[in-house]
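anyone seen this seq b4? input:
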Amino acid sequence: MAGVRRVVAVASALAAGAAGLTACASDPAPTDVAVAWAPKGRPAVVVTWKDTGQPNRITIEGVLSESPSYVKYIPAGDPNRWEIPTAAFPPEGNYKIAVATGTSQGGVTSKLTRSPVFDTDGPVLPSATTVAQQGRGVLIKWSVPAAPQDFTPNDPLDVQGKKTQRYVPMIGRPGQMLKEIGPATTANHQLIKSVKPPYTFQLRTENEWGDRIGGQVLGLTSSINAAVPSKAQFSVPIRVRGRVVLQQVSCDLESPCTTKRATPAGVPVVVLTQVTPGARWTPAARGSTTAGGYYDISVPTGASRPYKITVPQYTKGNTHTGTSTSKPAYTKSVVRVASAGFAGGPASKPRGSTVTVSVAVKPAMNTTVMLQSWNRQTRRWVNSKAVPMRNGQAALAFKVSQPGDFAYRFVIPGAMMFGRPMDGTTTPQLVLHVR
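predicted toks r here
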């Protein structure tokens, strides 16, 4: 009998508990659950509802999105109003606020009442950013693509108006944190009146749900090295070769900015020269880097002169590159032999005939050149005749009397041109056969 009484007692207790739960679950549910933005910059979502002075539980429910673990209990008698920080809502989702009667100890004792659906779409980042030199500073412009489709149009938290997001300009430098350089704007451009690389420009794009970093402009520093030939024949181009290395600033919001090395193609390179001593440096040739940052530029030559190679300050797309210049290197010009030989074709003449030997050089100098012949006995060149040169041309006619093979050459002296010395030269060996 005792065992039967225990079973009956347990059954009676379960029945009583079930009756109690049924009674609690039938508590009236809150009504008119609404959401709106809190004042003073919309830092939070305000939830309001109506009830009969009961305690309430507030949660966030995802609509085709995962529900965040947010729960707030409001004691009975408190105002039917609560502010949920925007940070409690996951970004880029659709959500409802659910309000029910309940406490943390007793649980939910009514049905849930939900607010209208709203989205938490963040700002749309700029899709393209450009920079242009303007005085000592730069003008940065950006464009923003159309916002993605709104699957909750006209929800209670939509902000009305065409310009619903703002842009905060920020600058980062090596070893420093990104920092604001101006107030938030709804414009699509920013003038920075004085800025020099290295730096990174970023836009912090804001809307009612948060902010994102994008719209980058890179302010790069450059360094350049160069190999310039020490001598060049007059009017024969030389090749100037070298490499350009850029330093790029990389930033994020949580740590100081760092630098990294870049060697892109397409960096403009200018070869500068001084035509006369003390004159201003002027462009002699232009080129650009290839893959790896290398350049190879053909430079026309004239008189002796120095050269230096520079990366000019320039802007392209979203990059702003600072200038750099190599050390000057001096290229000495050498008189160039344009032609030399015997008149009348092949250098084979009969004994007793008159032959004419000539030379033409660049630049068209007025000077005196020396015709030399090779002495086979002493095995050295000996002077034969000084010949006047006019406008870069000289010629000498002489009679050959002995048969045999003879070698000649012209020695052209150096000269001064545009205030700098130019090296002289000799012609190749000119062989004459007398039969």
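The helical segments are 2-25. Residues 126 and 144 are 4 Å apart (CA to CA). kinda curious what u guys think
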